[in-house]
Fold each of these.
Amino acid sequence: MADNPLQAEIELTTAEEPTPAYVLPVTPEAAWPHHSVLLLFTLLWGGNFVLAEVALREMAPISFSVARFLMGGGAMFAILYLQARSEASKNGAGIQLFPSIDRSHWPRLLLVSVLGATLAPWLGIEGLGLTNGARASLWLALGPVLSVGIGALMRTERIGKMGILGVVLAGLGAVVLAADGFNPEQAGYWRGDVLLFVALLMAVGELHLIKPLAATYGATPMVAARTAIGGLLYVLVASPSLVEQTWLTFGVWTWIAILAGGAIGIGLGQWVKVRALDTLGPTRVVLYGNLVPVAALVLAWLALGAAPSMLEIVAAVLIILGAVCLELLDAYKHPTDATTEASL
């Protein structure tokens, strides 16, 4: 690692070799297990929104978010330990969970931690408390569109004509979703929509900021470090609410939402995404996130009787069509330049 901070930043932003997004390094036979697992987790992620809506009937939003986040962090550290133990066994060395991080890279890691592990989950769960799980998952489907915009500003991504069409379609879907939030029968939804949008913007921005860190030090250690730093701050912020909660009175489904939703949906789910990146490529992995709205709408309808409104259905169709145009029809024709500047 370079001693010069400027040189270290240059090495950080150029650590990842450019890989054309349209190149698939494996055969379909090798890829289908990853597709199967991601499809399973799409249902779990959709169910996570439904379970969260149930849990928020008994818990303060920030208490639920922190409890679930701690479960996800525990699962992530378990994965990190198992990986480090496996590497130590192969190399005949001691277990090292985290690499030595250059001093000049700590500001970026701290910013990533606050955005992704403190503010984004905090604002997201507060927004969910003002709306419903199905609508919240629809906002998440805008993630790829926001990612392209941030990538264009940071010069880490470019799109073609089909991608522009996808942005327009997804933007129309967001307008329809926002318009539904002003429905007099759903008063207050627009406040939740604003918080969810800001939380999503932070979460997507975090991905672009953590990308060079992950390329330099490894994805799993950086995600675990960011979870530990941001999670500690999140616990401090939420401590008054955590103390006031009557934990022993919660129902079974609330505990399932905390334990299973946190450890499996958040912790293990993140590991599944990272594990599939090398085989499928990031675009195809992210595309599964856009199936979550459909899963959440169907599960909310079946479990809670919350039938989606016509505007929600239209919004879902537009957002998902936009994501398909942007990520499937466009991204595999226009390679992403992964070596361009992404500095703070």
Amino acid sequence: MKTRICATAVLLLVTAACATTTPRRQFDDIPLPTGLTYQPERSVVIESPSVKAAQLVYRGRLEPASLGDLMRTRLESNGWRPVSRTTTATDGTWQVYEKDSNALEVHIYEGLWYTYLAISVSETLLPATADTKDGALQRATLNASIDPPATPESGTASDRPTRSGDPTFTRRVKDFFTNLFSW
């Protein structure tokens, strides 16, 4: 009987150890160290035609100071320019980077059992291109104004555009993540 219980316990432990999720590879120029597990319930990804933003959370059993140095080295080798670095005893380490008008924030902190790596990133996507008559590519332009109209629109709520059709929605998402990285 004890052998059967021990075998079941070992089988459950092995199954639980193999059930880790793979890292989310949304942003190819952000290298992730091995030994971290992606936490989908703590992460969020926002995508629109012109902006992709995310907060991706990982956890592992790594030393926070070593993880911070490793992330700094890997990000700088991939072209990310450091903007600031702050470390406090209670909140961990915050590192802010920029690259090609994209913003990246790395937050490393300790939980009860794990070290957490939270990566907040926003990426401006290239506008769509269209073929011209002579075969050359030409950038498509958006003919909508980004600023809201000077006078309020009248009409019922059903007449107003939905959030996804609002041309300022993309700008608001981009501003949100830009302001998220400034203190």
Amino acid sequence: MFRINNKPIIDKCIVSFSHNCFESRSLADKFALEKARREIAQKKKGVSHLILRAEGEEIDRLKFLFLVRGIPIMCYALGNLLMSSLKEIVVVGSTEVKIILEHFLDVIDTRGKQVTFVHEDPDNLMLINTMILGRNQLSLAANELVLFQPGDLPFMYDIEAVLRDKDLKHHNLILWLNSRQAMFPQFKENPESEFVVRNYHYRVIAEKARQLHDVKEPNVYPINLSAIEEDIIELLHQTRKDGKILNAGLSKAFRSPARMLMLLPVLAKHYRHFDSDMKKFRLDDDFKFGAHLKNFNQGASILLDTPFLAKFNDDPAFVSDVDALEDWEDFESLVHTAEERHGGNGLAAIHPFGKELLRFKEQTMPRLKKLIPMYADFEGYLNRMYRSMEMQYVPFDETGRYDTPNLHTPQIETAYHWYADKTRQRAAGSSVA
């Protein structure tokens, strides 16, 4: 149906340290609390007290600024990109993001990469506008994909499989779906092996492998911005978490009769077969949307009028973003555990950019504490936030010592060993090379 020949690698990236804002703190807290209460009432495994921005606050509650063991989350994400084969990186964010970025690069340097900052637009914080702001800083060929990703993935440093994916040449959008079965293949037999706890609202049947996957929306988007229509990007983004992707797609298709006609056989197959095929795997299951992988890829390609591919990611770091207080605790506890084993250099044992991050912390964080309002008393700020979110504890005691129930779970021990092994393997591979 489509014949394209894209560049075989991605060497340009747009990383977003921007996020939408609620009109007031009361509205933001109401949204976060209602979600958490609902998850608690439903006895969900992954309860999330969301970290949300609100307009007009003295301290901008921007999740990318949060500190993990005294280092901004955005610096972890920047380090991951600097270690990659990327050549150009566009950073989209606030004035405070710009301040941290400049101090970070003063200490770490760009490693030969071109790093450009562009201010977010406070009057238009929609995803598509963030993409456009980043795109406008790049010279992109018509057959070139760019990597778009949010900046709240502190340990997602193995991205070469995405940047050099063999499918880049023949697809203009690739969704690396976060599959529970691919990331944690032993989660049923050994629940402690699932060290990133998430709620998986989607089901995908991979017919060829005869497998059912519980999936979450992706956090990385290899995309050809010249080939994907802007309205569908925003539409899919807005519905990615609530299971209304099918409705969003149909609303777009109804405005394009030719596409709707082409979609009809795909939709007919979905409605004829998916429910019955699901029952072959599970008789009773609660999910928001499901599809056969091949059928989904075909339908999305028609809807987008361009080659599309969804595939499964098997690296837990790709799903381990920081959207909520519980997520922040996962990483704070992880690094704390590494420090208990290795002392002050513990971060370097579980993250290949750890030494550079620790150097940045030592040389620059004392100054940033005077420049970024959140950092003046980060421990007190977090404690106040925990109380406002109706948490049953606060993360720091009166001396600033970190201790939460999360710190003492088997999952944190599993995460420590997983990342320590991964870091050792990476170092061994680098030394051989």
